[in-house]
Design a protein that fits this description.
CATH class of the largest domain: Mainly Alpha
Strand order of the largest sheet: 1-2
Number of domains: 4
Structural class: mainly alpha
Number of strands: 2
Distance between the termini: 90 Å
Number of helices: 9
Shape: rod-shaped
């Protein structure tokens, strides 16, 4: 018949005789300590995990023995049989077979015993409890099993040395992306507002510095583009092919209005300046009319001729005094005004080479 004392003695002596090959530091000792403290369910769980690591038959044997000592007969039978199936050459195979026979008899006579309860979740006790993905006996991050007893990796909620952040999920754009870097353009993870993210902020490499595809209209001026204002609309200084457009020029109102005023003023000046010539011509006609009237009415004809000659003299004096000047100045105003208006309209309407226009800055990203 097996005794608990003999199980504890074997577990302790076997542990002290040689270190378990492939066992993580402290794991074997943790199992032995649990057995010495008669926490047989904990000890069995630790030795089962140890066997999963180093696949040594002694670890599985210890797991079965401590399960037997805990009174979990069905678990002990299962572990003993697993030992015989997986390690048929085990040196204590005869003992294992006798243990199975004894346990089957006990189950027949008194029932399956008391099953070990699930161990409490204490991360770092070598026991993989419910809610734990691993337990390597410590609470150190980055060693394969993190301080939360989840396998080391991005998205487990535990930030390790090579991670900028870890929010426990693989969602991009929530502040910490699925590569455990802060959500930002250029971190290599495509966020909700990004069309692409190639892990850099270089323009023209397929994914530009604002995380949009390298194409005209994305707001980033790349090689081969004269401008990029973030749209494909023409008439705003940067056309749909990302070429600089000639800037829109306002109609030259002041030069045109000023030139037109000069023309009007010049015309008035010319008209006024020619009034003495008109008066002179009229006086000449009046003199001829008086000459024709002379045979019939010499006195009236003389009066009219005298008045016409006086008018003619005044017209000649006015022409010399201000008429010529008014005509000359008025003509100059007309010519100058026409030139100003024509030059302003031609300059406004003449096409400007886009190469001479100032580059249009990008409004989203990149340099002009």
């Amino acid at each position: 018949m097996m005794s608990i004392a003999s199980i504890v003695a074997f577990v302790v002596v076997a542990a002290g005789s040689a270190a378990a090959p492939g066992a993580p530091p402290g794991m074997t000792e943790a199992g032995v300590r649990a057995a010495e403290e008669r926490r047989f369910c904990d000890a069995s769980s630790i030795f089962v995990q140890l066997h999963g690591i180093n696949h040594e038959p002694l670890a599985l044997y210890r797991a079965a023995e401590t399960a037997f000592a805990a009174g979990d007969f069905l678990a002990a039978i299962r572990l003993y049989r697993a030992l015989l199936d997986n390690h048929p050459g085990f040196e204590r195979a005869a003992v294992v077979e006798s243990r199975v026979a004894e346990l089957l008899s006990r189950v027949r006579d008194s029932g399956p015993g008391t099953a070990c309860a699930l161990p409490p979740r204490i991360c770092g006790d070598w026991i993989v409890s419910s809610g734990e993905g691993c337990d390597d006996g410590n609470i150190i991050d980055g060693d394969g099993c993190d301080a939360t007893c989840m396998p080391t990796g991005c998205g487990n909620g535990q930030r390790t040395a090579d991670e900028v952040c870890d929010d426990g999920n693989a969602t991009n754009g929530d502040g910490c992306d699925n590569n455990c870097t802060a959500s930002a353009c250029g971190n290599g993870a495509i966020g909700p507002a990004e069309a692409c993210d190639d892990g850099n902020t270089v323009d023209g490499d397929g994914c530009d510095a604002n995380c949009t595809a390298s194409v005209c209209g994305n707001g980033v001026r790349a090689a081969g583009e004269g401008c990029d204002d973030g749209n494909l609309e023409g008439g705003d200084g940067c056309d749909s092919f990302c070429a600089v457009e000639a800037p829109a020029r306002p109609f030259p109102v002041l030069p045109v209005v000023g030139g037109a005023a000069a023309v009007v003023g010049g015309v008035v000046g010319v008209v006024v300046g020619t009034l003495p010539l008109t008066a002179h011509d009229q006086a000449q006609r009046d003199i001829r009319a008086a000459e024709d009237l002379a045979p019939a009415n010499p006195e009236v004809a003389l009066q009219r001729a005298t008045s016409a000659q006086q008018a003619q003299a005044r017209a000649q004096q006015d022409w010399s005094t201000w008429g010529i000047t008014s005509v000359v100045v008025g003509s100059a105003l007309v010519v100058g005004g026409v030139v100003v208006v024509a030059a302003a309209i031609v300059a406004w309407a003449w096409p400007v080479d886009a190469a001479d226009a100032a580059p249009v800055d990008s409004t989203v990203g990149g340099s002009p």
